[in-house]
Amino acid sequence: MTWFVRISPPTETLPPPPDGRLPHGFAVELAADTHRSRDGHLMLGGSPPRLMRITPTAVRLLEDGRFAVTDATSAALARRLLDAGVAHPRPELQPVRDTTIAIPVRDRADQLDALLAALRADPPTADLPVLVVDDGSRNPDALARVAGRHGARLLVHPHNLGPAAARNTTLRHARTAYVAFVDSDVVPEPGWLAPLLAHFSDPAVALVAPRVVALPVSAPGLFDRYEEVRSPLDMGVREGPVVPVSMLSYVPSATIVVRRAAVGAGFAPGMRVGEDVDLCMRLHEAGWRLRYVPSVQVGHRHRTDLRSWVAQRAGYGTGAADLALRHPGRVPPLYAAPWSLAACALLLRAKPLPAAAALALTAATAVKVTRRMPDADHPARAGTLLSLAALRGTAEQLLRCATRHHWPVAVAAAAVSRRARYALLAAAVAEGLADHRRSRTALGPLTHTAIRRLDDLAYGWGVWQGALRRRTAAPLVPRLALSTRGRPARRPWEPRPVAPTSRQPAQATVEPW
After folding, report:
1. Looking at the whole model, is its pTM more than 0.85?
2. Residue 183's closest CA among 278, 275, 87, 48?
3. Contact 304/223 with Cβ under 8 angstroms?
4. Domain range list for the chain
5. Please, where are the H alpha helices in 16-62?
6. Backbone torsions φ then ψ of 447, nearest 5 degrees
7. Cα torsion at 491, 495, 498, 503 (round to 10°)?
8. What is the pLDDT of residues 128-163, one digit of tens each?
């Protein structure tokens, strides 16, 4: 049956979670990259990275690196570790139930057919209700035939309203506790849904997302190979909580599962770009937890022809202005401590005295960090390494800003300054070669660097377009990691910045438990 529907805007303020106490038997496991002192009382890990100091009771619970909730004490410890990102949930699998699969689509009948066939062939999802929203297709009859053949309910927008509005339509028609949003150009792997639904045994979890990887192609071209390692939809191999201004600040809506009671009316319908980032941030602001589970993968048909690829990257960039206005300070192009920015500026002078001053700033920070963790195995060494890592992280962010968000400014400076010209060229090449090494791509280093620069040029151009259109500089303004003294108390799930670390511009913090 086909339904014509009317769109209404969602409520901006989302409901807070209920009592978030973890249930009896809920298991957590320390993350593989969490470092512990020999006596177990001090831990470093998570994103944003932070230091945590725990009690003897907590040390005993974590003796094997894993424990299950048995009482109020273990539940509180598990919650703190999960929110810090130093531990990951290990919930038990349950039968797939009480879930609607929602698919927004415009044309793409062949891709919808492949997706529905995969869902119906997978036993856990074979009998689930499926809602397909035809968002103003030019050939609606083809979509209707595909939906009918696979037993999906079809909802129709007479005119194209965008993916956010289409997903909201499914939310209004779903009658289950959970809704799995799956884009039409996605093909999930068998058994994908149960591991995601398992995370909702945590009553404070509102959204869970799998890893989105490239579908294999028979004859991959240059952009296919680049997308395999640098797709904006692929959030990488590291699982963890989704937290603004962190390494995992959002998850794409290509495939996500949500708790229907948490998301209210859903996505912001006026946003055609960045609506998934906005939803993640609003859920986080309301106090909900969001999880990324890369052990579950879905395949995605990436755009790989040059024109649509560049247009997509620029389009993503245009959404930065709306996000920066809706969530001030949550989507900065750079987030670093003043001392590390000052040290990098001094090092850029490439002269002995400024370099010595940069060294002094770094040393002073190392001393400060060392004093905050006298019970570390090697306090001076740890403080030095953390400070150097922070300096390196800020330098990497500056390189990215010069070649991505702020490249028009960098190019203008290069046009009038020989030193700026050489610095920009060196930054463009060095950052590209470093990323080539990290990504382990099959592309050659120069090819990868060239495509990465094109990626940055397109995205940066989109950022400036959006900023000019909205008449705001918000998406271009860096954010300083300042002391939180004298500010309103932070909410328990929010990171508390103190000193930036290596690959992440966010901060380390010492928290007792």
Report:
1. yes
2. 275
3. yes
4. 27-89, 99-304, 335-480
5. 56-61
6. -65, -45
7. -170
8. 999 999 999 999 999 999 999 999 999 999 999 999
